[in-house]
Amino acid sequence: MTLRPKLFDLIRPAIFALDPETGHRMALAALKRLPIRGAQSSLAHHGKLSINVAGLNFPNPVGVAAGFDKDAEVADALLGFGFGFTEVGSITPRPQAGNPKPRLFRLVEDKAVINRMGFNNAGAEVALSRLNARLNKQPHRGIVGINIGANKDSEDRIADYAEMTRLMAPPASYLAINISSPNTPGLRALQDESALTTLIEAVIEARGSAMSNNPPPIFLKVAPDLEPADIDAIARIALDRGLDALIVSNTTISRPELKSRHAGEAGGLSGAPLRALALERVRDFRKATGGAIPLIGVGGIANADHAWERIRAGASLVQLYSAMVYHGPGLGARIADGLERLMKRDGFASIAEAVGSE
Fold first, then answer.
1. Mean pLDDT of 240-265
2. Which amino acids are annotated catalytic?
């Protein structure tokens, strides 16, 4: 299909010889040096794999989760690998260094990652410059969502989200409100019913002040570590306030049985050990919303079977991150190819028809 996945196979030993954060920067540097393939390339599919979610036409349902491209450096390179969309960030109003290093750990034996990065990013001004530059070159270059967060030392985090909405609404295909990272103290408290209602209202008002015509849809990213009452409350608020989708889910603070020597590190766990919990949360939110709001399945997806399982459980789209650490950015196109085969095997004419069909 392309030589690019082979490039990752060649550089993976060098990346894995480095500490994870340095290795990640090396991977981003390699992606930045690749010639950009058009986002509407044959790798992106279309046809049977395309799906409309929140008014956006996704050429296939496989995307890159936030965290891989924090500062919007390689969005077009990732789209060129055949992903149906990518999500940059999390981005905060002001630059911040994040938590002390080391803060990123590969759990190779578990095909997992633990991170306590702490929303490290170069800030809104840097990301906005890059996002506007790519749109100025070619306005229709694929779907790029923008994941927004609040600064750790902010005196008013809801004001941070409103400011980020005003700044990022114009270049965003969609905005993702990230209140579910476990690595910013107190952030997950914004998932509580009263705080969440206030936050969403502030974001919607800010979006309206930034764009009166064709404003981007608003997605909410939730944690997997939720009680049934939390799920019901979030679902009710999302429906009442007209959110466009829920991203289910972020990393987990729970610790299933792990083999790696890094198992005891603090932070959010992602990758294979998260798969069952994240799948269950998709089922929970599908039930709580009655299928009335689209879901995006994230967590432990590493092949087409995992993606298909998440779609059949109720996800209209899926996202990857940790699996790319082990399998490279060519994984997205391989999963999309596999989904097309699974659709044919199970007799579905479209991805939309398969959503929630389990």
1. 95
2. 181
